[in-house]
Amino acid sequence: MQQDMIVILDLGSEQNTLIARDIRSLGVYTEIHPHDITADQLGALPNVRGVILNGGPNRVVDGVSIDASDAVYQSGLPLLAVDHQGKADQNLGSWPQEEEARMDVLKQFVFDQCKAQKNWNMENFIADQIDLIREQVGDKKVLLALSGGVDSSVVAALLIRAIGKQLTCVHVNHGLLRKGEPEQVVEVFQKQMGANLVYVDATDRFLTKLENVADPEKKRKIIGAEFIRVFEEEARKLDGIQFLGQGTIYPDIVESGTKTAKMVKSHHNVGGLPEDMQFELVEPLKMLFKDEVRACGTALGLPDNMVYRQPFPGPGLGVRCLGAITRDRLEALRESDAILREEFDKAGLAGKVWQYFTVVPDFKSVGVRDNARSFEWPAIIRAVNTVDAMTATIEQIDWDVLARITQRITHEVPGINRVLYDLTPKPVGTIEWE
């Protein structure tokens, strides 16, 4: 690894990702690790220049106040303790609320005490990952879950550069993709990029597994487990497949919970993987935030229309068709989402809004259609802006645009008689509804 590293130990802070991003913005690499990291685990991390003991409101676990291990205190590394009554020499109380003051503290620690170098950049990251991928994979083959989204596309580019023809991409249509997406993935990756792409239509298989399942966590785990089973079946048709490539990124890991951090939601590629999975994972983006993934894609030479493509969750429309999924409501969701994307594009919002989509919940309301009572679903519009997907603000959409979208959805999509606009930022909401 070419980059110096600052390790953040999670002792119950809610600011771990903020501090990690602050340090990376200074040009120094950082990772968040559990508070009870062992001497061997700490020693295995490359180029560690210092450790931040980041305490906070979740520091008391089961009535016991947690602390870093003696191995950390005896490591000889510079230590910075914040909001943490431990054995470290420095204790600054809480992090300064002002960004400038907080950055001054970090600069003094990172550069003056730790003597870290500003060598965190995408060129070094890519070079490191190529070396790590080649070391991990050797002469074996990798199966990549290629959704066509930003994360999996960047992983594909990295793997192609690292191992070339040892990569086989599998695009699974689980019936939960947006309108026209399966066809687009095949066109771009197979016909234009010449990737070794296997297309699997597993719509009936996934929707059958999801019948009558309303709990969002169960849906995510079913989708994650079924993905692995499909890949295992495809791998058995090929020779030498021992690895599964995934577009897991850092927010997926953080939001799925750690020993002291509360879980927001499990991600299908983190909390939904079966214990008896037969693959070893290759996840070269797992320590990157979303904006860093895009920067990596640009550095790899991917086109802007791929790098800045709107994010789409692995479970797809399954977490936007709220409650137990039915095929008719899923189709109403797919069509309303297509109208929203079309109208945003016409209004020049496609490049301005980070993520936008519709949600169709599992309840109905009374309306009037063709001079008669109707009892149909609402479609909820969600449009947010964010840098790293950890927080999000609401985009203020012109009223005429919303009126046009409402007119089209209520008149063109069977089963929808209301259109609503979600005004909730993250936090307290999440970007997705499930």
What do you see in this structure?
The chain has about 425 residues and is an alpha/beta fold. It folds into three domains: about 5-115, Class I glutamine amidotransferase (GATase) domain (Rossmann fold), CATH 3.40.50; about 120-305, 3-Layer(aba) Sandwich (Rossmann fold), CATH 3.40.50; about 325-420, GMP Synthetase, Chain A, domain 3. Helix content is about 35%, strand content about 20%. It has helices at about 15-25, 40-45, 70-75, 100-115, 120-135, 150-165, 180-190, 205-210, 215-235, 250-255, 290-300, 305, 325-345, 400-410; strands spanning about 5-10, 30-35, 50-55, 60, 65, 80, 140-145, 165-175, 195-200, 240-245, 280, 355-360, 365-370, 370-385, 395, 415-420. The strands form four sheets. The chain has a five-stranded parallel beta sheet with strand order 9-8-7-10-11, with helices on both faces. Strands 12, 13, 14, 15 and 16 form a five-stranded mixed beta sheet that branches. A four-stranded parallel beta sheet has the order 2-1-3-6, covered by helices on one side. Helix 1 links the parallel strand 1 (about 5-10) and strand 2 (about 30-35).
Describe how the helices and strands are arranged:
Layout: E1 5-11, H1 16-25, E2 29-34, H2 39-44, E3 48-55, E4 60-61, E5 64-65, H3 70-73, E6 79-82, H4 99-113, H5 122-137, E7 141-145, H6 150-163, E8 167-173, H7 181-192, E9 197-201, H8 203-209, H9 216-236, E10 241-245, H10 250-255, E11 280-282, H11 290-299, H12 304-307, H13 327-346, E12 355-359, E13 365-369, E14 372-385, E15 393-394, H14 399-412, E16 416-421
Parallel strand pairs: 1-2, 1-3, 3-6, 7-8, 7-10, 8-9, 10-11, 14-16
Antiparallel strand pairs: 4-5, 12-14, 13-14, 14-15
Helix pairs in contact: 5-6, 5-11, 6-11, 13-14
